[in-house]
Structures are given as C-alpha cells and as structure tokens.
C-alpha cells in the first residue's frame, strides 16, 4: 500500500490525545525535521501524557516496578525476573516506545538501576535472547547506545552464534541428547528488532545470518513448511512489544534493514495485507490484561499496530524506489 494512498489513515494517527504516536508519526512516517514546531509540541507533551504518567506513577521510589505473581502471590520486579508484563524491563520498554528517554530524571533513575543488575558478559538472566535482545532495543531507544554496559550486551548479541542462525537461551540449550535444539522464534524476533536499531551492524556476519534465518522461512513460517506459521503468535496482532512475536514485527525489522522487497517475503506481505480493513487499518487481537499501558481494546482497530505496519511498508517502498532508480 503506497504511502500516498494512506493520507486518511495517517491523519487518523495524528488525531487524538496521544502525543507519543503523533511525534513518532511525524518523525518516522512523515520525516518531519526534529525542529519543526509540530514535532517539538508533540515531543514536549509526552512526559505529561496519560500513559507516561500512569507508568511512572506505578514506579517504586527506588526505580523499579513491582507486580504480584498471580500464582505465588509474591511481588516480583525488584530484580530481573520476568513477572507478567508489568515488571521493570517491560515498563522501561513501554516508556521507550512512548518516546521517553534518559533525559528525564525518573527514566534515568530506573534505567541505571536496571543496568546495575546486568551480568558481567552483558546478559541479565540465563541468556534469554528474548530478554537481552529486548533490553538492547530498549536502551538504544532510551539514549544509551554509547554506554559501555549496553555495548557489552551488543557484543553478546554479536558473539552468540547458533547453527541455524537464530537465538535461544540456557534454559533450552542442550536439553536433547540426540538432536540439536532449534532456535526460539520469539527470542530471534527480539534480537532482530535490536539489530534494526543498530544500522552499523547490518553488514555484520551475525546480523546477516539472523536475517537469513528469517528470509529462509519466508519470515513467518516453519523452516521446512512454508504453508504453516512458525507458531500461533503469527495468527494474531499483539501490542505492546513483549516476548511474544508478531508478523508485523518481523516485516518491520527486515524492511528497516533493507530486506522488505525480498521475494521470499511475498507470502508474508500478502498475509499481512489481508488483515487490513477497508480503510487500511489493523486490529489489535491481543494485549496483556495486566499491562499497565492500556494500548486499546481487543478486536478494535489499533493506531500503534497500524503505525508499525505503515512503517514497514514505507521502508519496503523506499527499497523498491532505490531499485528502480
């Protein structure tokens, strides 16, 4: 769907009281200069926006987010445990997605505290690729790209090599005695999203290997059968970005890195486009009930998912234009 045919959808993204979405639409979709008055106005409004205030309002004074485990009834979140979509690394990621960064004192406090829990090799917990890939993306968005601790995590990303090109974790690695464990698609997607924020590594052999891991499966299918989704995550659109995978996440990341027009992705693009409504908007199929960032109602069109699909299409179209030129 060419960008020029989406003026009504883009106008819809710009409407309402979501300055984060307006700011990102202006900057990333429409390429407005950061000094443009509309961009400055939207950016300035983000810290006082409803989702940011709600998230920061739940932060512990010491810089972390707690959540009660529904099974054990124990509160977790003051360390690196996952919790259920409302603990520290998730909330940091949500705020980064909303456009917050380390220039805000509360953001810096929380980001620094969580970085203090990092392992010596750049990991956080059992080399969960869905965690350290996720965290790398978060910290780049927060403005920590040149921080030595984040560089250590990026080095871990580059040095973690598996035969099939994907990523896994210590929990699953080596659990079979007679065959190798396949990589985890969810972890691989989070690492792909991390690489999408690191253009200086797009030509690195490890990044290229991960890209091929996805291209060789048509992006979203089983490696040996391109008629079957790699897992059930591909059947529904979820937001915010968590450890689950999304069809649109994969196409967005690959397109941003210049692979959106690869012929092996045609079926995945067709699948994505088949889910748009008549106006070019996309529905939210799933969001965590316990997520403190309320991104929209299930089964209703969703601005954030539509925004990311349009971004994926924009990056894909830019490559097509370059090829024609």
Features:
325 residues, mainly alpha, 13 helices, 45% helix, 5% strand, globular
- Distance from first to last alpha carbon: 20 Å
Label the structural class.
Answer: mainly alpha
Low-confidence stretches: 1-5
By DSSP, the count of extended strands is 6
Note the overall shape: globular
The fraction of residues in strands falls at: under 5%
The largest beta-sheet arranges its strands as: 1-2
Q: Estimate percent helicity.
A: 40-55%
- Helix tally equals 13
Q: Overall mean pLDDT score?
A: 95
Radius of gyration: 19 Å
> How is the biggest beta sheet arranged?
2 strands, antiparallel
Structure description:
β3 (221-222) and β4 (225-229) form a beta hairpin. 45% of the residues lie in helices and 5% in strands. α2 (19-29) runs parallel beside α13 (303-324) and α5 (88-97) crosses α6 (105-115). It is mostly helical and 325 residues long.
